Prior knowledge:
Helix 9 (244-253) links the parallel strand 8 and strand 9. The chain has 10 helices and 9 strands. 28% of the residues lie in helices and 11% in strands. It has 2 domains: 5-129, Rhodanese-like domain (Oxidized Rhodanese, domain 1), CATH 3.40.250.10; 157-269, Rhodanese-like domain (Oxidized Rhodanese, domain 1, 3-Layer(aba) Sandwich), CATH 3.40.250.10. The relative contact order is 0.16. With 282 residues, it is of the alpha/beta class.
Amino acid sequence: MHSTLIDTATLAAHLDDPTFIVVDVRHDLGQPDSWGPAQYAAGHVPGAQFASIDADLSAPKTGRNGRHPLPAPDVAATLFGRMGIGPGTQVVAYDQGQGMFASRLWWMLRWLGHDAAAVLDGGFAKWTAEGRAIDTARPAPRATGFVARTPLPTASVQDVLDSLASRSRFIVDARAPERYRGDVEPIDPVAGHIPGAHNWPYARNVNADGTFRPAAELRSAFSEFLGPTPTARVVHQCGSGVTACHNVLAMAHAGYPLTTLYPGSWSEWVADPSRPVAKGAA
């Protein structure tokens, strides 16, 4: 079973394995409705299905629940069953490279107790750079019953707000440093970060080629970053609850237990102007 990452050679050896389901999660925040489906139609890993970050892996937006609200567990379970994910299914998710979008699908599966879920290390960029097969056929999923366990706990906006005074949560912000500091904000209406949050940009998890850094190397880096903080206090956030999953994955790859996600993240936080905002370095 692969529960964090899978390499391209291993996936290539299992393309005809009926217990494997491959999901293409390529996405562009600037072209959310068109880019991913167009890339998928132009060519994808043979047998891969497509899952949209917005249409499939997010709930409807209300204007107060963030840009990529987390679907209800039963809604996510229905989607996974429709995709053919059942007991014994190994799911492999990939995106264009670093795994920032594929990790959202990985996290949702692990959230509902499906541990046989992995992100393709290096993504479609590595797959094609190695000259591996691509296809344009759209497979017909064989629906099955997805078996969901009790969802893992997540942090709500109220949980995060209540933790600010006591610093009972170690909030980890996965956005780029310039967004964390509030120097720029290209997506959300307010710049800055949640007071007390610590910045660990998701790009810090990967090498120049988009593959994840070695587990031992990441373990050492996270250990220094967290200090004496127990993992039970760690809460991950980003702009909308997508790239934060990359940090959860990186920590799991490094040997830590699954840590907590704040799905609403910054885009939900700033939807209410009464919530405090900080700027500058930590």
